[in-house]
Amino acid sequence: MFNFKLKSISGRIFLGKVIGLIIGLIVIIILPSYGFPLISEFGVGALIMFVLMGATIGFAGIFNRHPVLDFKMHWWFRGPAVGFVFYLMFVLLSYENINILMQSDLVSWTGLVSPYWALLDGIVIGAIMGFVETKFAGEGSDLPLK
């Protein structure tokens, strides 16, 4: 699909933004089935959050080792960690709207009705972004910036 000839940070950021844009647009399209308008502040905020999450995971791909604590950071750690932090911010800022989504029939049958269970979504989406970015655009401090 995307086969970058040159592994780069730019490639990682591009892939992260594209994945974030796709997920954000899916969220905007699905929201009217929960009673939200097609274009709402919540939907636009989700779109922006996913695009920025993908870009941040792309930027974080330059670090193979933690700069302060000096432990190895694989894609399966970086992506979910950034996804968790972004989703935590999203849940804290839009608790009422996420609570509406979690109380819906689609989710409530699982018993996971607290909005904080949505943090699992952030972990999974962050892992997907981290995997795709690393697979197609590389990782590590030897990546060129172009």
The overall pLDDT average reads: 88
First and last CA, distance: 20 Å
> Using DSSP, what is the number of strands?
0
Coarse morphology: elongated
Domain tally: 1
Largest sheet: none
Question: SSE order in H/E notation?
Answer: HHHHHH
Portion of residues within helices:
55-70%
The Rg value, from CA coordinates, equals 16 Å
% residues in beta strands: under 5%
| SS element count, helices | 6
The poorly predicted ranges are none
Structure class: mainly alpha
Give a brief outline of the structure.
The protein has 6 helices and no strands. It is an all-alpha fold and 146 residues long.
Can you tell me about this structure?
The protein is an all-alpha fold and 146 residues long. 63% of the residues lie in helices and 0% in strands. It contains 6 helices and no strands. The longest helix is centred in the N-terminal third of the chain and has 22 residues, at 9-30.
Write the layout of secondary structure elements.
Blueprint: H1 9-30, H2 41-60, H3 75-93, H4 95-102, H5 105-108, H6 119-137
Helix pairs in contact: 1-2, 1-6, 2-3, 2-6, 3-6
Give the tags.
146 residues; mainly alpha; 63% helix; elongated
